[in-house]
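Weekend entry, working from home. Most of the wet-lab plans are on hold until the incubator is repaired, so I used the time to fold the two sequences that have been sitting in the queue since the last round of cloning. Logging both here for the record. First:
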Amino acid sequence: MTTLLAVVIFVILALTASLHVYWAAGGLWPGKDGASLARTVIGANGIDRMPPAWLTGLIAIGIAAAALWPMLWLGWIAVPLPGWLVTTGMIVLTLIFLGRGAVGFVPAVRAANSEQPFATLNARYFSPLIVAIGLALLWLLVANWSMTR
């Protein structure tokens, strides 16, 4: 189960990071132009363009690091980092995903991000998927606590 969860997390987040690289390079899918893309993937009220390419690229790097972190946690990737840093990173990553996923269901946050189609996509797909990733990270964290310490 641990191996499957780590691989699924990696695949989902690696694809997500790749999509952010595509957007940073000027890609427009699943939109038709910058405004429709921003309304689809960001959804903040009144948004009419994507963030700067450097910021989208920075987000891609963060997501790619998140994709690799469970492998660090499980000891599949040897990096000279102290154990406390790997553990702290895993805890923080788990809290970020659980928090971001859960906040998507908070009415005030939903009202602030109500551009369509983002609002519908976030309620149906984005937030539930992010919560599921957070729960998978929590499972890896708890199930492998003693093994990696």
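Second, folded right after the first finished:
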Amino acid sequence: MRRDPWQALADPTRRQIIEVLSKSPQTVNTIAENFAISRPAISKQLKILEKSALVTIEKQGRERVCTLTLAPLQEVQIWVQQYEAFWLKKLDKLDDYLKKEG
């Protein structure tokens, strides 16, 4: 079952994993070194990111290398942009009001 990218982003640990992987592909062990939780807990989080298509995991010899895939985040970006435009309009109106009153 493919998960929604929103579900993946809901957890702070998964967001931190995405941040780690944004620099370069990493092995599961290398990723786990960045966290105070167990390696199995990191593997569980990586599985969710993989099911959300945000991470691909490829076996290379004895290691599993994780690579970030940003395409699913486009849905998130489009949604956020709608609200960015909304708030920019509100801030522009506030700016106009303050200039008129000041």
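Plan for Monday: verify the second prediction. The beta strands are 26-27, 55-60, 63-68.
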